[in-house]
Design brief:
Elements lengths: L3 E5 L2 E7 L6 E7 L4 E5 L6 H10 L3 E6 L11 H8 L2 E5 L9 E3 L4 E4 L2 E7 L8 E5 L2 E5 L17 H12 L6 E4 L9 E2 H7 L1 H4 L3 H7 L10 H8 L7 E2 L1 H7 L7 E4 L3 H6 E2 L4 E2 L5 H4 L8 E5 L4 H11 L4 E5 L2 H7 L5 E2 L6 H22 L5 H17 L3 H7 L36
Parallel strand pairs: 4-5, 5-6, 6-7, 11-12, 14-19, 15-17, 15-18, 18-19
Antiparallel strand pairs: 1-2, 2-3, 3-4, 8-9, 9-10, 10-11, 12-13, 16-20
């Protein structure tokens, strides 16, 4: 992951984006003092935050989540363990590990820079926003073109209406850094949202409540994610080198690889068994009680969810720290199988090629060929806005994207790459 760096007057802002889910995290550094604030770091981004702190010679003063996330694992506590600093949380948060609780109207000192805290309930009761030198970090209270859903975790559309009015009162030039990007605009402004965002533009409280009243499917593994993010569960980790040494013991740990079967068949640690995360609850009995277990995935996120789920069944499980990415980085042995390009990359290659072909043919042959570029561009826009990509679903069914029989689990989970549903976004369509 290569973060995007923005230099704004006395600030340096690095944006960390998760390409699969559109999650955005931020490192804000006061350039004069080199004191930093981390906003919404994901668990799988902790290494990147630590590397950026070192690259900028910065010291972490604070790390916080703008709200209790339900769709991904927070890296706030792990980051503070690695880099120092204090864990902050809104006064309404149920996080037990908070060093300090804050609320709207308070300020934080970031070297010579003042960070203003704003209450921003609606998506969750403990939502907050941060205003730093004309830059507003909104979490899920405001996205480009939308906002966070309000149908779970104590959400309130009426509270979101008040939060929108609070944001609306800020200068139009205020730069907005949201917690998710579902439409390909990771940065926007209050002025742009006042002009284009249907939720911010809604001036009738009751109409907004009706508009956001639709109840949708909850994020996958939500209960386990919430327990982790509230500090109620925190699976222990094992470093790649330590695990490699343990595998040579007479009684090595059981390796449970919770990636999809497609990923497992592409490469794996020798001796690992496949048990995709989606099947874990139904197949937990396959793991002997009392056995030492290490869960494995690509970066450690799914493995953490798996380990904390197994803990509820009384099984002891640790997580391979950093997953297969860290295992390969340590140059440890990997059993390589049939490598296949991920579905999301196949979508990107096909769509990008068609857009380029349409432009080239439209320029050299006939303007009618520009329709090809428009068609695929519209398809990508629809996929980003709705989380549904017909091309990805089609590619996932093709023979080369199917798991091979007789290797690990009998059932494969062929995910459509990075094309996922915007699980935290509210619908912007009028209702009623």
């Amino acid at each position: 992951m290569t973060p995007t760096t923005t230099v704004a007057s006395t600030l340096l802002i690095e944006t960390f984006r998760d390409p699969a889910e559109g999650c955005l995290g931020y490192l804000v550094v006061d350039e004069a003092s080199r004191i930093a604030l981390a906003v919404d770091p994901r668990l799988d981004q902790v290494d990147h935050f630590v590397e950026s702190l070192a690259a900028h010679g910065a010291r972490l003063a604070y790390a916080l989540d703008t709200h209790t996330h339900a769709d991904h694992l927070s890296g706030v506590r792990r980051l503070v363990q690695r880099a120092g600093g204090s864990v902050l949380a809104h006064q309404s948060s149920k996080l037990g590990a908070a060093t300090r609780r804050v609320r709207g109207g308070e300020t934080l000192a970031l070297g010579g820079t003042t960070v203003a805290v704003l209450d921003a309930p609606g998506h969750t009761p403990d939502s907050l926003a941060l205003l730093v030198e004309g830059h507003l970090f909104t979490g899920d209270a405001l996205f480009a073109g939308g906002a966070g859903r309000t149908d779970f975790m104590g959400g309130s559309a009426s509270d979101l209406f008040d939060t929108m009015r609070r944001f609306e009162a800020l200068p139009d030039t205020t730069v907005v850094h949201p917690g998710h990007d579902y439409v390909g605009r990771p940065v926007t402004t209050i002025g742009e949202e006042k002009a284009k965002n249907p939720l911010l533009r809604e001036r009738d409280r009751e109409r907004l409540v009706v508009r956001l009243s639709e109840r949708r499917e909850l994020p996958a593994n939500m209960a386990t994610i919430l327990r982790h993010n509230l500090g109620e569960a925190d699976a222990p980790v094992v470093a790649p080198a330590d695990l490699h040494a343990r595998l040579a013991d007479p009684m090595p740990p059981i390796l449970v690889d919770v990636r999809t079967l497609l990923e497992f068949q592409s490469e794996r640690i020798e001796g690992a068994r496949s048990l995709p995360l989606a099947e874990l609850d139904a197949r937990a009995d396959e793991i002997p009680e009392g056995a030492e277990v290490v869960t494995v995935c690509r970066t450690g996120v799914r493995a953490t969810i798996a380990a904390e789920s197994l803990a509820r069944t009384g099984r002891r499980a640790r997580v391979l720290d950093g997953g297969m990415v860290a295992w390969r980085r340590a140059r440890l042995p990997v059993r390589v199988g049939r490598r296949r390009l991920a579905v999301d990359r196949q979508v990107q290659l096909i769509a990008g090629s068609m857009v380029l072909a349409g432009v080239a043919l439209g320029t050299l042959v006939s303007p009618w060929f520009l329709g090809l570029s428009a068609f695929f561009g519209a398809g990508l826009t629809f996929a980003g806005a709705t989380g549904t990509c017909g091309l990805a679903l089609l590619l996932a069914k093709l023979p080369w994207n199917r798991a091979l029989p007789g290797d690990g689990s009998a059932a494969a989970t062929c995910a459509a790459g990075s094309v996922v549903a915007p699980s935290c976004a509210a619908s912007t369509e009028p209702r009623g």
